């Protein structure tokens, strides 16, 4: 089994004069790890730090023992930003072809990626004319191109049809079973139970860490939303 | 830098342009129409003026057009998240910048072939030097415009701001490049200023080409324009940060 894919130590990130992440310590291993919290709590900033595009004030972030963002890591990490980071004026296939060339993978991988997100039918359509959910799937397909060892997904299932959402979560688990570490953020608490392990985040800090059932048990709550509330109230008291 | 990635960027930029028929039409046809307008203006009164200003316009079009197109498209990459994604991949900053420069350099070559054919073939512009060299100068000018556009896009937060850089950066150069008053007749201070502005050399190159059969001066001007373009790309690379706040 893989040892920890990601190690975050004493991470401090300041954006716009505001401390977004405060002395964060996290380890992320294999399986599907969910990062849950309200919007604005620092999820995206943490994800940007993991892929090495965020300026850090203090602390270290490493993945597979290498500094986040370092050259050898950039081949091994798939990253989906919150906005669908694809070219609206190109077709689905053209987008995939371009990113495949950048990553040095072939047509077969591009086709497999498109199949994985169920966009085979839309390959010749211009991305700008697709629905929001389809666009974010194109973005996800790009992240899957190179069979990443670490997949960092910032709210990949927002606004998707429930059937598709279920299929994507199944895909994340399949990738995790094949050995990738999958790190997914969401602000929708009902997605919590689809994760092997949960990190609950609020105001730049991790307030709970464990499997969904552990977190429920610890707080005596029926669902993660109530658990979240219980932890926050305990914190304030 | 990795050639595979640089060419992937260039091909992708060209594919995007090919899909955008309106922009493509503006890039390729507008210079021909404007230069025809200039010819028409002076046709009755003093055709010699067309011979004097025409070459300058052939230098100015590629700089302005590529500056605008590049600053807006790069800004779009920054805003849409595609740049962030590319920088999280094994892409060098120079792959990105040079890829753009190659794509727009090619468009400029096509643009100048059309504009030069119109000017020389249809409108009777007198060129003493080799006509093909006009295209070489135009490509150097376009790469200069691209480099400047890439550089300023780092200082603009919105496309609206990016467009405002055009009057701020290019109009002073346009006024001082010798189009209105020959540079040697400018007040000494302004002449010195015009000596350090890239557009002056872009226009000089075209004027040397049309008024003399010797090409040594032209190549020297092209070298200076290329130097400015390289400096612009280097500055652009310096402003392209992998990690942002």
From TrEMBL, chain A:
Residues 6-228 form the ABC transporter domain. The keyword Nucleotide-binding applies. Keywords: ATP-binding, Nucleotide-binding. It comes from the Bacteria. GO terms for molecular function: ATP binding. The keyword NAD does not apply. PROSITE patterns: ABC_TRANSPORTER_1, ABC_TRANSPORTER_2. This is ABC transporter ATP-binding protein.
UniProtKB/TrEMBL annotation, chain B:
It is a multi-pass membrane protein. Its main location: membrane. The keyword Secreted does not apply. The chain crosses the membrane at residues 24-42, 54-75, 96-125, 131-155, 162-181, 222-240. Pfam families: ABC2_membrane. Residues 14-243 form the ABC transmembrane type-2 domain. This is Transport permease protein. It comes from Nocardioides koreensis.
């Amino acid at each position: 089994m893989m040892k920890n894919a990601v190690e975050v130590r004493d991470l401090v990130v300041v954006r716009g004069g505001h401390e977004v992440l405060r002395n964060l310590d996290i380890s992320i291993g294999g399986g599907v790890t969910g990062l849950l919290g309200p919007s604005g709590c620092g999820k995206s900033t943490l994800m940007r730090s993991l892929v090495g595009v965020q300026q850090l004030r203090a602390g270290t972030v490493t993945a597979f023992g290498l500094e986040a963002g370092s050259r050898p890591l950039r081949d091994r990490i798939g990253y989906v930003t919150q906005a669908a980071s694809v070219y609206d004026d190109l077709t689905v296939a053209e987008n995939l072809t371009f990113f495949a060339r950048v990553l040095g993978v072939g047509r077969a991988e591009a086709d497999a990626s498109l199949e994985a997100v169920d966009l085979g039918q839309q390959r010749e359509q211009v991305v700008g004319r697709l629905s929001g959910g389809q666009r974010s799937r194109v973005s996800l397909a790009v992240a899957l191109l190179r069979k990443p060892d670490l997949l960092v997904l910032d709210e990949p299932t927002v606004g998707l049809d429930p059937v598709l959402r279920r299929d994507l979560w199944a895909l994340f688990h399949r990738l995790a079973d094949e050995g990738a570490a999958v790190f997914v953020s969401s602000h929708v608490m009902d997605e919590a139970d689809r994760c092997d392990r949960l990190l609950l985040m609020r105001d730049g800090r991790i307030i709970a860490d464990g499997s969904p059932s552990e977190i429920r048990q610890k707080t005596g709550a029926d669902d993660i939303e109530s658990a979240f509330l219980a932890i926050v109230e305990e914190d304030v008291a | 830098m990795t050639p595979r990635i640089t060419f992937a960027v260039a091909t992708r930029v060209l594919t995007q342009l090919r899909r955008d028929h309106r922009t493509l039409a503006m890039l390729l046809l507008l210079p021909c129409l404007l230069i025809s307008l200039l010819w028409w203006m002076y046709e009755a009164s003093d055709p010699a003026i067309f011979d004097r200003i025409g070459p300058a316009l052939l230098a100015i079009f590629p700089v302005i057009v590529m500056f605008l197109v590049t600053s807006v498209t790069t800004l779009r990459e920054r805003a849409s998240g595609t740049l962030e994604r590319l920088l999280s991949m094994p892409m060098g900053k120079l792959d990105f910048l040079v890829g753009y420069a190659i794509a727009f350099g090619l468009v400029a070559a096509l643009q100048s072939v059309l504009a030069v054919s119109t000017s020389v073939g249809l409108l009777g512009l007198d060129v003493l030097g080799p006509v093909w060299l006009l295209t070489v100068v135009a490509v150097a000018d376009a790469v200069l415009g691209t480099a400047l556009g890439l550089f300023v896009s780092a200082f603009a937060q919105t496309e609206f701001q990016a467009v405002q850089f055009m009057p701020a950066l290019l109009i002073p150069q346009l006024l001082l490049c010798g189009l209105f008053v020959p540079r040697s007749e400018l007040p000494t201070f302004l002449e010195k200023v015009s000596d350090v502005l890239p557009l002056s050399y872009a226009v000089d190159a075209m004027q040397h080409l049309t008024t003399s059969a010797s090409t040594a001066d032209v190549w020297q001007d092209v070298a200076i324009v290329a130097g400015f373009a390289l400096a612009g790309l280097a500055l652009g690379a310096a402003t392209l940060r992998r990690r942002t706040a």
